[in-house]
Design goal:
- By secondary structure, this protein is of the alpha+beta class.
- It has helices at 21-27, 48-63, and strands at residues 2-8, 13-18, 37-42.
- It has one domain (2-63).
Length: 64
């Protein structure tokens, strides 16, 4: 599974995991509600360190 960054025509960026760029385009949830894709590029929205911090924060919130 590869990671892709989908940028919409309004500039919002979304993460998508897929086997290819075409699969990321097809599977993007925004297609179902009319969100238009401007571009798709390989990569991650967050660095590994940022992702670890987000995961820790999420775990703390679940415990509250």
């Amino acid at each position: 599974m590869n990671h892709f960054i989908i940028t919409t025509t309004t500039g919002t960026r979304w993460a998508e995991a897929a086997t290819s760029e075409d699969a990321a385009r097809r599977n993007f949830f925004g297609n179902k509600i009319g969100i238009k894709i401007k571009s798709v590029e390989a990569g991650r929205l967050f660095t590994d360190e940022e992702q670890e911090q987000l995961d820790r924060d999420k775990a703390i919130e679940r415990c509250r």
